[in-house]
Write a sequence for this structure.
């Protein structure tokens, strides 16, 4: 799994951190920070949930082929 | 029970999220999404923010590349309007005279702007709901343009702030004495009014618009008290009505949007999500609509899970955000049963856009029912967890209205 973020469109809702705190964090302005671009299997479900709950759709999760 | 064909009416965030979530939950049947606009699905929150100020192009508001939906084997039909519904025959009538059958229907038709009585649709009179509306309004705003924004809600405030940023001279008129901010209600009214004044917006509260004046295009706005305000541009932002006209003869309860149970079910095989949907609250029994982006996403995901697996999931709490004069404002919770805001973190003492604080609203029994974050996304995120619980600590300090005007 590979995770990418687009901080330019992030609205700082913090949904991603609530869903997957080992993969995402927020900076002091609330903007998304990627902690782990290639999370392990234990994080896959949470990372997908984070992407689907982002109101700005600033997170893209690509599953390995 | 397998659902062979899901038809989703509405191609905005609720409809698109539902289609994606159905596939994520393993739904293997056919999915068709109908949208009445020609533009590919787009997010609405940026329309009154980045798109209106010109910081973003319209394309940047797009929800996803339409190829992503094709990759999920979701059929997207744009420029098609649903005109009728036969619940018994499970058939949707379309504006082109044809119809489409479904096994499960998801209604996600959203809302449309309420028209203001007395306001003629002269050139120069705008509203803001669609991407086209945003482009039209953006083109009309500029240095020295005299703009009258009608509406004391968050949309009116965002439009006023964006127009000011573009150099326009803005008057914000509200029928109410108080400015409102989503589900937070009028608890931040004084602070918002101060933001507008500092930003150069003239705020006229408690005033009714009598008429829009002008021959070939708008020239002025006449207020009920006799005041006349010269205007090059008038924007009405006086709330929305659910887009349910096409359901008039369906037999569904459309008293205020589509009335649903606590899991979004409106009738056998019919669900509703997003702005148009009034889900019954489990604790109060009252069905209520919520016009928020994240509410639409979470309802869409809950309904998708129900359709795909038969498992109903919990009703989401409303979250919403705004940006005014550089202040990033977030709110979470329902607030309805809560009191005034009390400070829980940070400092609200300057009353300016630059403050950083978190405040919450408590029910009479001390339960936190809503949290507001002002430039404090990290503290806000932590405070969200308090909603629905009684704080264990001593009662928080009351925010003074003399300095912070947080009322």
């Amino acid at each position: 799994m590979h995770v990418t973020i687009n901080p330019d469109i992030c609205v700082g809702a913090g949904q991603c951190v609530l869903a997957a705190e080992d993969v995402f964090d927020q900076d002091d302005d609330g903007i998304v920070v990627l902690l782990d671009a290639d999370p392990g299997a234990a994080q896959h479900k949470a990372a997908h949930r984070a992407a689907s709950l982002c109101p700005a759709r600033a997170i893209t999760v690509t599953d390995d082929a | 029970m397998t659902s062979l064909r899901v038809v989703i009416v509405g191609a905005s965030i609720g409809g698109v999220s539902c289609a994606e979530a159905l596939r994520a939950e393993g739904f293997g049947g056919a999915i068709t999404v109908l949208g009445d606009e020609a533009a590919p699905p787009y997010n609405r929150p940026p329309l009154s923010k980045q798109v209106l100020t010109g910081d973003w192009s319209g394309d940047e508001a797009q929800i996803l590349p339409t190829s992503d939906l094709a990759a999920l084997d979701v059929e997207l039909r744009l420029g098609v309007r649903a005109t009728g519904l036969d619940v018994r025959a499970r058939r949707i009538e379309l504006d082109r005279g044809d119809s489409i059958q479904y096994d499960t229907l998801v209604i996600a038709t959203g809302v449309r702007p309420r028209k203001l009585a007395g306001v003629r649709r002269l050139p120069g009179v705008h509203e803001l709901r669609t991407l086209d509306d945003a482009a039209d309004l953006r083109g009309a705003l500029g240095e020295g343009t005299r703009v009258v924004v009608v509406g004391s809600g968050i949309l009116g405030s965002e439009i006023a702030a964006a127009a000011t940023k573009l150099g326009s001279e803005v008057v914000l008129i509200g029928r109410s004495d108080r400015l409102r901010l989503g589900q937070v209600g009028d608890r931040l009214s004084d602070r918002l009014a101060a933001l507008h004044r500092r930003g150069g917006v003239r705020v006229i509260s408690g005033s009714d618009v009598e008429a829009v004046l002008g021959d070939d295009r708008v020239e002025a706005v006449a207020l009920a008290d006799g005041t006349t305000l010269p205007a090059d541009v008038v924007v009405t932002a006086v709330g929305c009505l659910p887009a349910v006209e096409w359901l008039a003869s369906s037999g569904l309860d459309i008293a205020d949007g589509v009335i649903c149970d606590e899991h979004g079910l409106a009738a056998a095989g019919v669900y509703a999500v997003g702005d148009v949907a009034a889900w019954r609250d489990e604790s109060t029994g009252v069905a209520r609509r919520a016009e928020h982006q994240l509410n639409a996403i979470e309802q869409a995901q809950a309904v998708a899970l129900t359709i795909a697996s038969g498992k109903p999931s919990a009703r989401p709490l409303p979250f919403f955000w705004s940006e005014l004069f550089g202040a990033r404002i977030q709110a979470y919770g329902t607030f309805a049963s809560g009191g005034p805001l009390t400070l829980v973190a940070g400092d609200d003492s300057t009353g300016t856009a630059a403050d950083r604080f978190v405040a919450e609203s408590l029910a009479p029994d001390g339960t936190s029912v809503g949290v507001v974050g002002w430039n404090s996304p990290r503290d806000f995120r932590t405070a969200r967890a308090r909603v629905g619980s009684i704080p264990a600590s001593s009662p928080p300090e009351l925010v003074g209205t003399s300095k912070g005007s947080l009322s």
